[in-house]
Here is the input.
Amino acid sequence: MDGLKLKWIYRLCLILLIGLVGIVFYYLKPVYLHIVIGVLKSMVPFLIGLIIAYLLHPAIEYIHNKGIKRVIAILLIYLLFFGGCVLGLYLLLPIFKQQWQDILTAFPKVMALYDNFLSKIDRKTSRMPIFLHNRIDLMINGAERSGLSLLNKSGEWMKQLVNNIISLFIIPFIVFYFLKDYKVLSNMFWKIIPYKWRYEAKGLAKELNNTFGKYIRGQILVCFLLFGLATIFLWIVRMKYALVLGVIIGITDIIPYFGPVIGAIPTLFLAASEGTSLLIRVGITLIVLQLIEGNVLSPLIIGKSIHTHPVIIMFSLLVAGEIAGFIGLLIAVPLLVVIISVIRYYSNRKERLST
Here is the structure.
C-alpha cells in the first residue's frame, strides 16, 4: 500500500515538474523564440536538398546498376536536373513575367466580368429558401477570401524567395553531397535508431518508399507533363497567358478532384474577358487536358498507389482545407498516403506473425 502511494506521489511530482518546465519555457519565449526561428530558417535549404535528393536517388541507382560509376551517375542526373531548371528559368522567366504583367493589366476587366457573374448567381438563387441562399453567399465569400489570402501569401513567398537567394545557391551543393554520401548518411541514421526497433523501422521505411515515394515522384511528373501540355494547347488556341495559366493548371493538379476546378476557374474567366469564341476553345481545351490527365497520365505514371476510396480522399481534402487552407489541400493526400502505408504495414505484419 505504501509502495502504491509512493508511486502516485512520484507521478504527481513528475506531472508538476513537467508543468513547471512548460511555464518557464512559455515565459522565456521572447528570449529563445528568435533563435529557434533562425535555426528553422537555416534548416530550410537542407530540407529542400534532402527532398530533391530523395526524388533523384532512384534514377541514380538505376544508372549505377547499369555499370556506370556512382559519381558519374550523380553528375549526369545532377547536371540534367539543375541544368534543365536553370535553362527553363532563363528561357521562360521573361515570358512568364510579361504575361503576368498582362494579366494584372486585364484584371479590372476580369473583375467586372466576375461581378456580373456573381450578380447572375444572386438573381438565380434569390428564389431559393433563405438558408440555402445564405449558404451559397457564404461559400462564395469564403472562396473570395481564400483567393485573396493566397494572392497575398504568394507575394510574401516571392519576397522571401528573393531575400533568401543565397540559400538557393547552396541547395545544388547540398543535393550533391546528399546523393554522393547517401549510403553513409543512411547508415548513420539507422545507427541512431535503437537496435530493438531497427528491423521494424526498416520495414516501415521500405513500405513508405514503395507507396509514398512512388506517389510523390509520379505526381510531380504528371504535374510537369500537364503543365507542358496545358501551355502548348492554350498557345495553340491563341490564349495570351498560356505560360502563366499552364503553371497554375500544373500546380493545382496535385490536388485530386478539386485541383482541375481551381486551375480552370482563372483560365475560363481570363478567356471570357477576351470573347465568347476564345472561351469555347479554352473550355474544350481544359476538357481534353482533364481527359488526358485522368485516363492516360495518372493511370500510367501513378497507377493505384493510394489504394483508397475517393470519398476518404475528398473527406481528407475538406478537413485539411478547413485547417490549413490551400497548403492543407496540397499536403492532404501525401499525408493520407503515409497514414495508409503505416496502417497497411502493421496490418500485414499482424498477418505475417499470425501465419
